[in-house]
Amino acid sequence: MRAMQNPPDLRPDLARARITETKRDGQPTIGMVSLGCPKALVDSERILTRLRAEGYGISSDYTGADAVIVNTCGFLDSAKAESLEAIGEALSENGRVIVTGCLGAEPDYITGVHPRVLAVTGPHQYEQVLDAVHDAVPPSPHPFVDLLPASGVSLTPRHYSYLKISEGCNHTCKFCIIPDMRGKLASRPHRAVMREAEKLVEAGVRELLVISQDTSAYGTDWKGRDHKAPILPLARDLGSLGAWVRLHYVYPYPHVRELIPLMAESAALGGGILPYLDIPFQHAHPDTLRRMARPAAASRTLDEIAAWRRDCPDIVLRSTFIVGYPGETEAEFQTLLDWMDEAQLDRVGCFQYENVDGARSNTLPDHVPQELKQERWDRFMEKAQAISEAKLAARVGQRIDVIVDLVEDDAATCRTRADAPEIDGNLFIDEGHESLSPGDIVTVEVDEAGEYDLWGRLA
Hints:
The chain is of the alpha/beta class and about 450 residues long. The chain is about 30% helix and about 20% strand. The relative contact order is 0.09.
């Protein structure tokens, strides 16, 4: 619900990496700064897992590391600035820095600001990152100690994990350069995704967060595929593992409606494919959507939303929007506000449009002044907040299941099935929570609601 340029970053001194082994004498160690979206976080976890399998230790701070990897974000200019700042901090605190990730697709841009970096690699270039680490800090494996770990390094709490099912994207949205950075859609094999998911659940993960650039397009890049929409059998199989399964970045193709019965079934059982869809609508006015090079059928989208809610009354809809897109008129923006009144989305994020180097939207006419973008963002978020507040108020008195994320002296921080970690709201239990542990799934009765969060007591 909360507006942010990037989800909270995981810095070397804050990362919640599940690494318990003690560093042995002479063991080389690597630190990691992971910026940007959950897809980048998965890349960071894979890199650290490979390094640990080669005998490297993983450092939780700059001073304890022989080198630091900075996994960057390059989606927005503000994200690029954040990445450059993180690289500079790592250089200042450690001095030996390897850069990877989306901004790594522009090596001259990075080295022009920070010429001291040891190497720059692009997004999901795992082998090149490992080669750079080997050059900077040669491995020194112990033949009797450094074995392939039973489970990978995780930068999220033990009870939930991101599950990336594909790379790249086939869309050509004018404001986005992700296809240029990460390429066309390339889906992981069904069997490989399921094998990873099964291992995660066996290791204690209670919630799988399915991510990609375009989750509902999963498998449509396979020639001769058995199913027209491979996301459907994948969702069915993931839902059978006994964990909560949350789908992110779902483009509203017609076959998405076939996911809704799975969600309705899971809503009745309390697990499986959660009744939660994260769909990036971006805008509602057809002219704005055309300038974005996105499907311009917002009215039909309202019909789809009504059908989803008819077939699964418990479904929760999250989306993101862009205000101040080039050429956006007051009438177009008002259409978006009116659409929000009709759609009544549960969870909403909003960005003010920014130019991104290489994006085709940069050359569009009639860019919106910054102060007007801010004013429209404020009005949009006021609308979204009012909708959220009313929807949460309606939950007071209900009994719902929550997953426990954090237990502290004063309260337990939990999430409902309607809330994804980091981006949505929380439910707080501030009495009788002492016996709870992260990962517990418990039933609570909601007794208070705010703008984005709930409070409750154990039922």
